[in-house]
Design goal:
Shape: elongated
Strand order of the largest sheet: 3-4-9-10-6-7-8-5
Number of helices: 5
Structural class: alpha+beta
Strand content: 25-35%
Number of strands: 10
Largest sheet: 8 strands, mixed
């Protein structure tokens, strides 16, 4: 609209109005739920990883989505384990769905809004789960040589 500007979800103002910093945040309006599947891809060693931000529905059902572009590579069943190899049940896939997360969710106290990464080893049929309040997916590691030569290392 040439007259009304959207400032945030559910917050509008007349164009040209000056809004003081912090006013919108002080209203306590929460953003709408984001998408469940946040990111996915292949690791350098040929495993598939899927990154989720869990919703109340996924917590209750123990089911998340499988990207259509990855579904053809994934087998029907995996052993589910934490990063230390502690068994957490069986993970099953079919079509564009992944299920069998209920045991992990209940045992580890995972809540809506938490992040979950599943890494699927296609050869060994093992799925590793990592979770937390921040996205646990891997970021590229830098070598010591990269750190030593970076401008930030000179500070």
């Amino acid at each position: 609209s040439p007259v009304i500007a959207r400032l945030a979800h559910g917050v509008y103002a007349l164009r040209g109005m000056t809004i003081q910093p912090g006013v919108i945040e002080s209203l306590g309006i929460h953003k709408p739920r984001g998408k469940l599947l946040q990111d996915y891809g292949w690791t350098p060693n040929g495993t598939i990883w899927l990154g989720y931000r869990l919703t109340a529905s996924s917590i209750t059902s123990g089911v998340v989505s499988m990207p259509a572009s990855m579904a053809s590579f994934v087998g029907p069943e995996y052993s589910l384990a934490d990063p230390q190899g502690v068994p957490l049940g069986r993970l099953a896939t079919g079509g564009n769905a992944v299920w069998g997360l209920s045991q992990l969710i209940s045992r580890r106290g995972i809540e809506a809004g938490d992040y979950l990464q599943l890494t699927l080893d296609l050869q060994e049929r093992v799925a590793q789960a990592r979770w937390g309040p921040e996205p646990p997916w891997e970021v590229p590691h830098t070598s010591e040589a990269d750190v030593e030569s970076s401008p930030a290392a000179a500070d």
